[in-house]
């Protein structure tokens, strides 16, 4: 994925996140720092600031994966049944 596509995806997720209610849980900075600590990663402060800025949008994008209740029990398109 090129940087252009990643930036567009983050921008779209941020736009969609603005319409979603806030989620319960830790604030984005606390969550990002905890996740980085668990992964034993030590990025620079400006990189952490970027991750914090995109955290809500990333969470919204994950929530959108489950936003279509009708698709919950459907089989993925990669399955093929020779019986049909």
Automatic annotation (TrEMBL):
Q: Which domain of life is it from?
A: Bacteria
What protein name is recorded for this chain? DUF4089 domain-containing protein
